[in-house]
């Protein structure tokens, strides 16, 4: 389950109420990446009996999740925000080390498709700088899929060449951004997949807005086949439920997905 860092980490009790013992922790504000907050997170996670399998690191500055403004606002791609975002990810890497999380995850943005694009090498360099800082602290740096095609992600991993790079594969994002089919993406990125967001979505229906997120089994992800392929690849990571709505509907969908996952994995 993907759970937000708030109230000093007391969100872990909610994870436990769903009967779950593992989560990704989503840190939206880098100002929270302090040793004092980390100590509280460690204490509260232990009290709830919840393990943090990765830290999702939010970035400062604007973020517009669409095709119009997304390329100029998301991740490490926009040069105007790159230095402060590199600094934020380094802070998240320190925080991950303090709480014992094995990796930092983020969206790196609309990485250029054309490897000869003059904007591409600086993005590779920025990712390499973050990955090196993470490695020095014994922490992985994982790309959450979304704005880039699987082959661009594969190319970038190769260009950076850091051993601690990995992929947090979000199959719904691949569809919602129109960037790939989740089963095909596993053929490209399989060896680098460290954990997975269990989420579902629909393809875009116009050229400016993303496809819509929907509950698993209501979208285009074939979860029985997807999970079977993961198992064939020897995947041993976590399946993290992400449902980006709020209130009672979110809780209902999470509980339903827990049941669905048990059925899919048993089958």
Structural notes for this entry:
The chain is an alpha/beta fold and 267 residues long. The protein has one domain (2-266): Divalent-metal-dependent TIM barrel enzymes (TIM Barrel, Alpha-Beta Barrel). It contains ten helices and ten strands. It has helices spanning 12-17, 35-48, 70-73, 82-99, 120-136, 150-160, 171-176, 182-189, 223-232, 247-266, and strands at 2-4, 22-27, 51-57, 103-106, 140-144, 165-169, 193-198, 200-201, 213-214, 239-241. The strands form two sheets. The protein has an eight-stranded parallel β-sheet. The protein has a two-stranded antiparallel ribbon with strand order 8-9. Strand 4 (103-106), helix 5 (120-136) and strand 5 (140-144) form a beta-alpha-beta unit. Helix 2 (35-48) crosses helix 4 (82-99). The model has no long low-confidence stretch (mean pLDDT 96).
Domain count: the total is: 1
Number of strands: 10
In helices, the fraction of residues equals 40-55%
Q: How confident overall, as mean pLDDT?
A: 96
Task: Decide which structural class fits the backbone.
Answer: alpha/beta
Q: List low-confidence stretches.
A: none
Q: Architecture in CATH?
A: Alpha-Beta Barrel
| Number of separate helices | 10
Give me the CATH superfamily: Divalent-metal-dependent TIM barrel enzymes
- Write the H/E string, N to C: EHEHEHHEHEHEHHEEEHEH
Given the C-alpha coordinates, what overall shape results?
Answer: globular
Radius of gyration from the alpha-carbon trace, in angstroms = 18 Å
* Biggest beta sheet attributes: 8 strands, parallel
Question: For the record, what CATH class applies?
Answer: Alpha Beta
* Beta content: 15-25%
Q: Can you list the strand order of the major beta sheet?
A: 1-2-3-4-5-6-7-10
What fold name stands as the CATH topology?
TIM Barrel
Distance between the termini: 22 Å
């Amino acid at each position: 389950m993907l759970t937000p860092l708030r109230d000093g980490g007391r969100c872990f009790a909610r994870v436990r109420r769903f009967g779950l013992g593992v989560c990704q922790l989503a840190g939206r504000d880098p100002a929270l990446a302090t040793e004092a907050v980390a100590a509280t997170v460690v204490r509260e996670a232990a009290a709830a009996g919840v393990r943090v399998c990765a830290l999702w690191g939010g970035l400062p500055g604007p973020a517009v999740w669409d095709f119009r403004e997304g390329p100029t606002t998301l991740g490490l791609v926009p040069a105007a925000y790159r230095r402060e975002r590199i600094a934020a990810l380094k802070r998240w890497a320190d925080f991950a080390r303090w709480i014992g999380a094995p990796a930092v995850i983020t969206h790196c943005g609309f990485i250029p498709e054309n490897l000869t694009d003059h904007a591409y090498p600086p993005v590779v360099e920025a990712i390499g700088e973050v990955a090196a800082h993470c490695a020095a602290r014994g922490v992985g740096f994982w790309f959450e899929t979304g704005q880039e095609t699987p082959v661009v992600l594969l190319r970038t991993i190769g260009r950076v060449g850091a051993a601690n790079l990995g992929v947090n594969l979000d199959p719904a994002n691949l569809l919602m951004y129109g960037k790939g089919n989740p089963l095909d993406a596993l053929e490209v990125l399989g060896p680098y997949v460290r954990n997975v967001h269990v989420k579902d979505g629909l393809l875009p229906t116009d050229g400016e807005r993303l496809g819509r997120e929907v509950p698993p089994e209501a979208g285009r992800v074939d979860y029985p086949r997807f999970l079977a392929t993961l198992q064939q690849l020897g995947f041993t990571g976590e399946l993290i439920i992400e449902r980006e709505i709020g209130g009672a509907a979110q809780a209902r969908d999470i509980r339903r997905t827990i049941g669905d996952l048990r059925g899919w994995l048993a089958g």
